[in-house]
């Protein structure tokens, strides 16, 4: 199946919540694994709201966001994001949520959109004719 | 996506915004219901303080600033099969 630029991604609960769970004898959920779409039109990076909620992470803010449907308020969440096979691993104090439910690739869920906050430290090359792409960090 | 959490906390922040911005400029405030827990230098410190006080419950972290930048999301256009 032809797809746009994708990265393997793991999302998990933030470290402060891990520490709280340990101190209170609570078992932290394992990371969710799936794919992230590289989205040069997005700033900042956002994570699927259903996935974050399934990890038990609570929101920390409401922010206005400009979308194709107009300006909407969205909850934001702290989350830990890791891209396996790369050196990119980020503890987001706050990331935007997006409804990516139903989006998948090869049976794996789309969990995040990689926005220009992460891409600002990368070089992305995309060959639309062949569908090939590379991302260096 | 359902109703937003932290709406009452946001309302509390908006009612007191001018005072908060004046007294805690660029600090990260932690708000739960109608109570200001404190003002912190970094977002990380604010989150840690909120977790320590409230556990894994929703609480608002807001930077005390006059204007809030608008973010842009193209999530509604995403189709992974394209």
Can you describe this structure in just a few lines?
The complex is a heterodimer of chains A (137) and B (82). Chain A is mainly beta. Chain A contains three helices and ten strands; from the N terminus they run βαββαβββββαββ.
Describe the structure.
- The complex is a heterodimer of chains A (137) and B (82).
- Chain A contains three helices and ten strands; from the N terminus they run E-H-E-E-H-E-E-E-E-E-H-E-E.
- Chain A has helices at residues 15-23, 49-54, 116-119; strands at 6-12, 32-38, 46-48, 61-67, 70-82, 89-98, 104-105, 108-114, 123-127, 132-136.
- The relative contact order of chain A is 0.27.
- The mean pLDDT of chain A is 89.
- With 82 residues, chain B is an alpha+beta fold.
- Chain B is built from three helices and four strands, in the order ααββαββ.
- The chains are: A mainly beta (137), B alpha+beta (82).
- Chain A binds chain B through residues 1, 3-4, 6, 14, 16-17, 20-21, 24, 35, 37, 39, 41-44, 46, 49, 56, 58-69, 71, 73-75, 78, 93-94, 96-100, 103-105, 110, 113, and chain B through 1, 4-7, 10, 43-44, 47-48, 50-52, 55-62, 68, 70-82.
- Strand 4 (61-67) of chain A pairs parallel with strand 4 (71-72) of chain B.
List the topology elements.
The complex is a heterodimer of chains A (137) and B (82).
Chain A: E1 6-12, H1 15-23, E2 32-38, E3 46-48, H2 49-54, E4 61-67, E5 70-82, E6 89-98, E7 104-105, E8 108-114, H3 116-119, E9 123-127, E10 132-136
Parallel strand pairs in A: 2-8, 3-6
Antiparallel strand pairs in A: 1-2, 1-5, 3-8, 4-5, 5-6, 7-8, 9-10
Chain B: H1 7-15, H2 17-23, E1 28-32, E2 35-40, H3 43-54, E3 60-63, E4 71-72
Antiparallel strand pairs in B: 1-2, 1-3
Q: Helix proportion of residues of chain A, in percent?
A: 10-25%
Largest interface pair: A-B, 49 and 35 residues
Kindly state the number of beta strands of chain A.
10
Assembly state: heterodimer
| Distance from first to last alpha carbon of chain A | 26 Å
Strand content of chain A: over 45%
Taking all Cα atoms into account, the compactness measure Rg of chain A is 15 Å
By secondary-structure content and strand pairing, the structural class of chain B works out as: alpha+beta
User: How many β-strands of chain B, per DSSP?
Assistant: 4
What's the helix count of chain A? 3
Number of helices of chain B: 3
- How large a portion of the residues of chain B is in β-strands, by DSSP E? 15-25%
């Amino acid at each position: 199946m032809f797809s746009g630029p994708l990265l393997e991604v793991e999302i998990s609960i933030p470290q402060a919540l891990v520490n709280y769970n340990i101190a209170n004898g609570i078992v932290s959920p394992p990371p969710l694994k799936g794919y992230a779409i590289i989205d040069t039109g997005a700033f900042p990076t956002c994570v699927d709201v259903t996935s974050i909620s399934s990890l038990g992470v609570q929101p920390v803010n409401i922010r206005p966001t400009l979308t194709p449907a107009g300006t909407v308020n969205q909850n934001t969440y702290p989350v830990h994001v890791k891209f396996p096979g790369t050196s990119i691993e980020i503890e987001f104090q706050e990331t935007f949520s997006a409804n990516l439910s139903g989006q998948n690739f090869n049976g794996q869920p789309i969990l995040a959109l990689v926005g220009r906050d992460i891409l600002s430290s990368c070089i992305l090359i995309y060959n639309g004719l062949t569908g090939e792409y590379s991302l260096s960090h | 996506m359902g109703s937003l959490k932290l709406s009452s906390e946001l309302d509390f922040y908006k009612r007191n915004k001018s005072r908060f911005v004046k007294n805690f400029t660029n600090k990260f405030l932690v708000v739960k219901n109608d109570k200001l827990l404190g003002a912190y230098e970094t977002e990380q410190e604010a989150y840690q303080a909120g977790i320590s006080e409230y556990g894994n419950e929703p609480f608002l972290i807001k930077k005390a600033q006059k204007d809030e930048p608008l973010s842009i999301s193209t999530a509604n256009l995403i189709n992974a099969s394209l």
